[in-house]
Amino acid sequence: MSKTIKLDGVSLTRESLVDVANGASVELDAGALQQVARAADFLSAQVARQEPIYGVSTGFGSNADKLLGAHPLRDELPGATKSGRSPHIELQNNLIVTHAVCVGEAFAPDVVRAMLCIRINTLLRGHSGIRVQTLQALAAMLNAGIVPVVPQLGSVGASGDLAPLSHLAIVLLGGGEAFVDGERISGAEALKRKGLEPVSLSYKEGLALNNGTAQMLATGVLAVQKLDDLLGTADLAAAMTIDAFAGRLGAFAPEVHALRPHPGQVQTAQNLRALLAGSTLADIPYHLVPRFRQWLPTSWDTQQAQALNFDIGWDWVPFGQRHGREKFYARFRPFRGGKKHQPQDSYSLRCIPQVHGAVRDALEQAKRVLDVELNSVTDNPLVFPDKQAEFVEEQVISAGHFHGMPLALAMSYVKAAIPVLASISERRLNKLVDPATNDGLPAFLIGNEDGTESGHMIVQYTAAAIVNDLASRAMPASVYSIPTSANAEDHVSMGANEARHVLAMADDLGKVLGLELYTAAQALDLRRDMINAARDLADRADADAFASKVQGGPLPDAGERMGFIAEVDGLRAELAQADAFQPGHAVAAAHAAIRQRIPFLGQDRAMDGEVANAVRMVADGSVLAAARAVLA
Questions:
Q1: Mind listing the pLDDT tens digit for each residue in 23-66?
Q2: What does the pLDDT read at residue 321?
Q3: Which residues are registered as beta bridge partners of 67?
Q4: What amino acid positions are annotated as catalytic residues?
Q5: Contacts of 12 (CB under 8 A, 6+ apart)
Q6: Are 293 and 313 in contact (CB under 8 A)?
Q7: Phi/psi zone of residue 129: left (φ > 0), alpha (ψ -120 to 50 degrees), beta?
Q8: Do the beta carbons of residue 217 and residue 253 sit within 8 Å?
Q9: pTM of this prediction?
């Protein structure tokens, strides 16, 4: 049974709007419709009194100084047949048909349905002058599944989204085009197919239908919904990368973030702690982590171990190189493997809360603006039928609620944040594939014993290309106003472009995160398997056999040999006594979800389908859902 959202002009939420965008029907509140009727009746009475009202008995924009007569001037020509046309009605119809001039690719149906829902909701406030029957017809069109064709380019964000909203309204009049059951047909045919009649507009109804911020608001809400999940995915990708690095968790401690309590930063640190709970890779003693060595036929002592596509090793620190560092080596074993002994990771790991958190705060600010706008009246002029006043201009007030700058600036903030999140993701990906920075993993995360393989090398290229593209698109549209309507509209917001860019950029951010997850899963397999291979060898070998994995030790007849073997045996014993090393529970679940669809890359193969699969797993939310199921 289809979900129904009740609209009353004051309680629409982002979640309910997304429901309507995805197919829910709407129901109009009876009390709100009474307010709608009150304003429409008031306007009709004022027209009968021949009051000059902008957009009702005057022209629009730079034509606002033109008062409408009772009939067309040409009716007064000698011998002319009376046309019967009403300039007031003609004004509203012409407004829609002349303003529906957008170009470009059509918006997706979810965006258009959200636009319709927003327009209906704001008109229910009863300050726009639209008639009840016209509003009901708009709701009937939405509920019937008629999706007007709205090309994406044409709004300057003041006076609202005039052109795209006119493409919505023109279908209501029997014009334009619409999608019905996936088929693109004329507006007239769409109404006929669903048993609906075209509407004839009355006073101010054209202006009520096309004067508002519905396009930028719809695209903004849908973008924010995507970005909410992408932020969760970014935290998950970062957590998987931290486990793949056997990273350090101190930078995410609650007492640390209590000292700089930006809400997004605190939330991100908390998310990372939850995702990494149960990890025995994070904060592992640095000397237990071996580094990658090229596989050779002599690398391993058992048939099972020979199936590995790597060898492992450490460097021993000779006794003569420890002077002044005796206390350190009393606590930490004198072996250098994949991890450097240092108290902090690189910024792309250590500063995840500060970076992801700042993006989270930008998104929260946008949500605040969107939530206000969802139940605001955004057309012009505003009708106050119950206000006691001497003159009509005190009851029908021209203002600027159509101006999209509140939304435009909020979207500019988010727009700047998207490349930031993509960039730090790409930096983590690059760190994973670069042997100079990946803490002992193989170059490009492939064994490559024959020198013929590229592994994940070019995955980073793709991520870099997308990040550059996002950065080049991050220029805020809101700072560049181009006047319209013969300078009557001399400052516009460009908020429609801003929100449209953010919605498209969110999809590309998801691609970068998919590439990081794809790469981090490979790196996590290698890190876990390398450490566990060392553990397995330590469990079955004696100190002399284990010493074959350690370089820099003294020769068999050297005086330091016994001390060296004793230290090797200490390392061996510590590894042998450890449980199998594993990532965080939520990270492991996400990794398993990836591995169900994308196998480990043991040797080079075609990767295009796998990359597309990783991107789809981010877009459909399946990898994030796997992690969240563990955290629930």
A1: 999 999 999 999 999 999 998 888 888 888 887 888 777 777 78
A2: 92
A3: 58
A4: 54
A5: 5, 117, 118, 121, 374, 375
A6: yes
A7: left
A8: no
A9: 0.94
